[in-house]
Amino acid sequence: MDKKEESPIPFAQFIAPDGRLVGTSNTEGTIDTTLVNRFAKNSDSLVVQHLSYGNRMMSWKDMKRAGNVYLASREVRIPEITVTNKKEKMVLVLEGYFRSYQLKDSVPEYFADGMVKYFTWNDGKRFKCQKDAYRSFRNQKVVDAIQKHAVTLSEGGLSVPYIESLTIPGQFDKDYTTTDSLGKTFIMKKNAVVGHIRTNEAQKQVQMSIDWIAPAKARERSLFGYHVRITHQDVVETYHAGSRSMTSRANLESWRKYYQYFFKQKKEKRFKNIQRVSEFYVLKSYYIPKSVMQKERTSSGWGLPSSHVYTTEYWKHLDKRIPALNSNIKRLLGTRLTMYD
Predict the structure, then answer these.
(1) Which of 147, 260, 261, 288 could staple 292 via S-S, CB 3.0–4.6 A?
(2) What is the 3-state secondary structure (H, E, C) of the chain?
């Protein structure tokens, strides 16, 4: 729950001491306690995290007793956008910090973070990135187990977040609509609520959240002899804007995605489970001429090599606008999760 407004918070995530993601609040801001009980003990200290709020740590027993977990919102402001040359075609640049965290069958498998630039054209059809610095970690025990088997379907891995060049409403097809009720805007699909748009006029902030799988329970696919079941594709975007009509990638503040899928070969009985949390926090937003863009070291690829590249320990001097890394994940870095050379 939002501590000030006492309103539900969709897609808040609960992280256990061993780094497992044991639960995520739904579009109504509630969580299935019976499901969390399967993975968390009463004495476990769970960290609740959401990109627009400060992290909160409580024991699972105390959370259930309280009924609601209140989070304090973070106030984030990015500098005003500057345009260097209006005569040329311009490219939007979003500079910021990213981090990604992946689990396989509930076991922490990968972690990566770094500094990145995203470049997007005004038509929204071209989108590239530039990886300025990054570090990558892996759970060697899990990686070794994967390498012992001949796997043809990607089990995920290290990458910078892939952010669509259009806002959430910009990606709507004819099946999506919005409706206003009781001062809130609901995103609807097939008469079901699948997301929200919340506007805070005082802080000039608009937050959009959506479950791209809902109202279905899962999306099924067959690929190269594998059966794939996607169960979560939850996205939260926060903008510095006074109204929904003013939102655009140019005033994006933060972006977060939770993605979960299950897969197996058709002859196998048990599904493997992949979960990934990806975050991006904007530190600078500006336009550059297309001619300048062509000189940048950009790439259309999102994957990260199994290595690290940095000249300064950027993670020790992060901007105050970036929330602290979940403490239950942080303690795994250098222990269960080791950095690539």
Answers:
(1) 288
(2) CECCCCCCCCCCEEECCCCCEEEECCCCCCCCHHHHHCCCCCCCEEEEEECCEEEEEEEHHHHHHHCCCCECECCCCCCCCCECCCCCCEEEEEEEEEEEEEEECCEEEEEEEEEEEEEEECCCCCEEEEEEEEEEEECHHHHHHHHCCCCCCCCCCCECCCCCCCCCHHHCCCCEEEEEECCEEEEEECCEEEEEEEEECCCCEEEEEEECCCCCCCEEEEECCEEEEEEEEEEEEEEECCCHHHCCHHHEEEEEEEEEEEEEECCCCCCEEEEEEEEEEEEEEEEEEHHHHCCCCCECCCECCCCCECCCCHHHCCCCCCCCCCHHHHCCECCCEEECC
